[in-house]
Amino acid sequence: MNSTQDSQEPKSQIPENNATIFHHLLELRTRLLHAVLGVVVVFCCLVYFAQDIYQYLAQPLLETMPSGSQMIATDVASPFFAPFKLTIVLSFFLAMPHILYQMWSFIAPGLYRNEKKLIAPLMLGSTLLFYSGIAFAYYVVFPVVFSFFTSVAPEGVVIATDISSYLDFVLKLFFAFGAAFEIPIAIILMCWTGVTSPNSLRQKRPYVVVGAFVLGMLLTPPDIISQSMLAIPMLLLFEIGIIIASLYHKEDEDLEENVS
Question: What are the Cα distances from residue 151, in Å, to 125, 145, 220?
Fold first, then answer.
């Protein structure tokens, strides 16, 4: 009799487990659809201004180009597709808070209270840092880099940048600086999960300095100015991340002492 009951118990649990997995998959699909819908709504609001948005993006280069020169389109469809592509990427950037909210709504029910207290500020902080990286690239890095490029052009060379090439170049820098500004978030997460500790990161500071300049060399144009303008903020953000991670680490140690 007992063997019969034991053989029946797993069978009764399988449908329940399948139902739970199916429910999570439905919830994930709903959150993904909401995230995509948010991007689409932002895109529909911006697509009418696609040409103006591209013109604004091109200002740092246009202001440093020699008098009488201008940007060109080497492909027939570039005047349409370049602003269109930029609008899609911008829609994704602007919809990032909504996308992160959907992610939060999906994972929040499975988190403990102390995890929720950490993850929510991290999501907000990562969004602000990513936007800060993009703003830093546009307002600080672009004028310096484009001025340098236009000043070192050989004599007799007419500067006429293709609009598609320019868009690919600036988007690459946007992603590079946006990702680089996420360093404090990465440090906090690594310390929180136990992968490393603030003291261990302090001991590795010389290697981090070298790595920041190597990464700056790989992610930016081949000139020392743009490399330094990425490496130096990365090092400052590294120190900020260590300071914040130390505060969380100290709180965890105090909590463990109180529990013991």
Answer: 38, 10, 18
